[in-house]
From TrEMBL:
It is found in: Cytoplasm, Cytoskeleton, Spindle; Nucleus. The gene is anapc5. GO terms for biological process: anaphase-promoting complex-dependent catabolic process; cell division; positive regulation of mitotic metaphase/anaphase transition; protein K11-linked ubiquitination. Belongs to the APC5 family. This is Anaphase-promoting complex subunit 5. Pfam families: ANAPC5, Apc5_N. It comes from the Eukaryota. CDD domains: Apc5_N.
Length: 773
């Protein structure tokens, strides 16, 4: 904070003893807004304000000076957020000038303490503030009387337009524009009078006179103002899109800027970024091509590097076009653009560009669903050879992702990520650090280690960025943050913490608006959570409409959930047909997780027709796949299915033995539904091993019966958190039978009453307890 104050007031802007005086454009206009900034500087010097307030105001000064002119409302709001006392003083000083006479404005300029006239001034002569004040005073002193009068009338209009809404057809007062010779500080002749008539006949309106609080500027900006505006908006789009202008407002501002300077290459590039926000493929491609056209025509590359600069722009233009088509899923066009970039890079022997092309080549192959392991390994080797740590780390992360889907062990993947993390911290590659943490979170979740996934997600969200913080914004809108937050939402939903889930999703919706590129992540996450909640609560009529929305974002997930709904609605034939098609598709695309889930659902369909022996080969195959790919969560779920099948085949002792293998990881890392189902199945196995019969004809092992009651009580707690009424009905039914066998009449009546209430509320026949897990 102290450095901000010093750089604005005390530090001379010198490099090797040379003072750079031309900080502000000499041709900037004298405007009422600049007078407001002068009033702010005056009151900051004259009034006593606290140190925190002064620091906030010091941080505000530079954007106020370099940015586009603001309306009085915007200006006062910005100052008031930093120091209400100073905002009121500035408003009072402007009121004295605007509601007074011309001499009041003259008096303000004559009494303004400057670093040249006041020895006790806080501003150093060559500081940002000092140069600004010097520029304004010299510009004001060169004005003729008629120009001073026009400036005063403009100040009046600027002030009163804030308090009175202009009526339709009202013409705003002209603002003084000082042309080049007016503001030429080296001129020794006063040539202002010769141009008074011409200026009075043709004086353009400044952009600040046409703006209101909700409308961007309409008039031409100075070069420095335009560069500041573009830099700020580009930074905000990259780091926090919500703080940038809305897409329509930014488009209007850029169109206005390009109207005055069509060859402004940077404006075309910002237009490209803005079009990408709203997924406008035509305008984004159009703006990107215009950017490189203007870059070549302006000669900024060619003049410094000759023909090499011209070729460099061409090959990177083709590479950017390829990445654009990749983003929109136009793989054929992306491949053509990429081949063009490779050809030009090879002709000019540009190894760095070729490495970028190779990185996009293996990315494109992955998007097509092809195996790109060889290409990725070649890319990593070449990037390391040419000392390109960013591309090398990106390639290793891609290999880790492929290895995770191909069944590599966790310790090998984590070792690879650890090696890349060392490289990231060495070169301060904060973006890749975030990707690495998000990738680690996903890998732990895939392996079924929810506690480790939660830890990694929290580590990413609480990590301080290594990137410099500009405009008060820290980067938090990357894909890595979206992935981590989605994992957090799903982990909380699995534990029944739906209030926390709502808060996380609300933050995601604010941080990643629906039109943004990463919005699909939280949209799919939100739909999946809603679907699972409705399915757990038995509200299949609410879950069914969500299938269409899920299919629009992910066809595979949509098909799987459609089969789940059909199975729940007892439409087994349709569900089986969908599951078979889905299994064939996922085996081709090597989506092992979905293949295992499909096998488990198919086995459940066999249960409904009492085909328990038919389900065994499917379950054993699913278990082998899960263990081969180290998917502990799916392996535990498969073991539960195997134990249930063995129970139904009449071997409860073997089922209980198998359950002991799966119960620990389920209780440690599983969802509430998995825990409840595992405990319910354990209780049923204990009842079967104890020799329990509902009619009480056989003598049961009392110890195991009591143990089964305790297990059911624990399962009740889990199902209650999820409001899973169908499962609770099953639990209360079994509890009533067990209490009755032990002669516990009151507990039996209580369980029977709870069962009866749930049965009446659900108004649907309970499926046989023996036919589902």
């Amino acid at each position: 904070m102290a450095s901000v104050h010093e750089s604005l007031y005390f530090n001379p802007m010198m490099t090797n003893g040379v003072v750079h005086a031309n900080v502000f454009g000499i041709k900037d206009w004298v405007t009422p807004y600049k007078i407001s900034v002068l009033a702010l500087l005056y009151d900051m010097t004259a009034s006593k304000i606290t140190l925190p307030e002064r620091r906030r105001l010091n941080k505000l000064i530079l954007p106020l000076q370099q940015g586009p002119d603001l309306t009085l409302g915007q200006f006062l709001k910005a100052v008031e957020e930093c120091c209400p006392q100073t905002a009121y003083a500035v408003k009072l000083r402007l009121h004295e000038m605007a509601d007074g006479e011309l001499k009041d404005m003259e008096y303000f300029f004559s009494t303004l303490p400057t670093p040249f006239s006041a020895f006790d001034s806080e501003a150093y002569k060559t500081s940002v503030v000092g140069l600004f004040m010097r520029h304004m005073l010299l510009a004001y002193n060169k004005l003729s009387f008629s120009q001073v009068y026009k400036l005063y009338k403009s100040l009046q209009h600027y002030y009163h337009s804030h308090y009175a809404k202009p009526t339709d057809g009202q013409v705003s007062l002209p603002v003084l524009v000082a042309d080049d010779s007016d503001m030429d500080l080296t001129s020794t002749e006063d040539t202002v009078g010769d141009r008074i008539d011409r200026e009075e006949l043709d004086t353009p309106l400044h952009e600040s006179e046409l703006r209101n609080d909700n409308t961007p500027s309409r008039g031409p900006l100075s070069q420095k103002q335009a560069e500041y505006f573009l830099a700020k908006q580009a930074y905000l789009l990259k780091n926090d899109e919500n703080k940038a202008l809305k897409p329509a407002a930014l488009q209007e501002e850029l169109n206005n800027m390009l109207k005055f300077n069509p060859d402004f290459a940077e404006a075309h590039y910002l237009n490209y970024l803005n079009s990408m926000r709203v997924q406008d493929i035509f305008l984004s491609a159009h703006s990107l091509l215009h950017y490189f056209d203007r870059l070549i025509l302006s000669g900024s590359e060619g003049k410094s590097n000759g023909d090499e600069g011209y070729g460099r722009s061409l090959r990177y233009a083709a590479l950017n076009l390829a990445s654009l088509h990749c983003r929109f899923g136009h793989y054929q066009q992306a491949d053509l653009a990429l081949q063009e970039a490779i050809r030009i890079a090879q002709e000019s022997n540009d190894h760095v560009c070729l490495q970028h092309c190779l990185s996009w080549l293996y990315t494109l192959e992955q998007m097509k669903g092809s195996d790109s392991t060889v290409l990725t390994e070649d890319s990593v080797k070449m990037a390391a050879h040419f000392c390109l740590p960013y591309l090398a780390s990106l390639g290793i992360q891609s290999l880790v992702q492929q290895g995770a889907t191909q069944g590599k062990t966790a310790h090998k993947l984590m070792d690879a990520l650890k090696d890349t993390d060392i490289l990231h911290w060495k070169h301060s590659l904060s973006e890749l650090i975030e990707i690495s943490l998000a990738q680690t979170t996903s890998i732990w979740r895939m392996f079924g280690k929810s506690t480790m996934a939660l830890q990694q997600a929290q580590l990413l969200l609480n990590m301080s960025s290594l990137e410099p913080v500009n405009f008060g914004v820290q980067q938090n809108n990357t894909e890595a943050f979206a992935v981590a937050l989605c994992h957090l939402a799903e982990l909380h939903a699995e534990q029944g913490l739906y209030c926390a889930v709502s808060e996380i999703l609300q933050h995601l919706k604010e941080q990643f608006p629906p039109h943004s590129h990463h919005a699909k992540l939280w949209m799919l996450c939100d739909l999946k959570i809603q679907f699972e909640r409705h399915m757990n609560e038995g509200k299949y009529h609410l879950a069914e409409p969500l299938v269409t929305a899920i299919s629009a974002l992910n066809k595979t997930e949509g098909l799987y959930r459609k089969a789940q709904v059909l199975k729940a609605l007892n439409r087994s034939t349709e569900a089986y047909s969908i599951l078979q098609r889905l299994q064939v598709h996922c085996e081709k695309t090597k989506r092992t997780e979905v293949v295992i889930r499909v096998m488990l659902s198919t086995a459940e369909l066999h249960w409904e027709s009492s085909g328990f022996s038919t389900a065994l080969p499917l379950l054993l195959q699913a278990l082998a796949l899960a263990r081969q790919h180290h998917l502990q969560s799916l392996a535990s779920e498969t073991i539960l299915h195997l134990a249930f099948t063995q129970l139904m085949l009449g071997i409860p002792e073997r089922a209980l033995s198998v359950l002991h293998e799966a119960i620990e990881p389920v209780l440690a890392h599983g969802s509430l539904m998995d825990k409840g189902r595992a405990l319910l199945l354990t209780a049923r196995c204990q009842m079967a091993v104890a020799g329990f019969r509902p009619n009480g004809q056989a003598q049961a092992d009392l110890h195991l019966v009591v143990l089964a009651i305790d297990t059911l009580n624990e399962a009740t707690a889990y199902f209650s958190k999820l409001n899973c009424k169908e499962r609770l009905r099953d639990v209360h039914y079994l509890q009533a039978q067990l209490h009755r066998s032990l002669g516990q009449t009151s507990q039996c009546n209580k369980s029977a009453m709870l069962f009866r209430l749930l049965d009446q509320e659900l108004q649907s026949p309970a499926p046989p307890v023996s036919m589902r897990l």
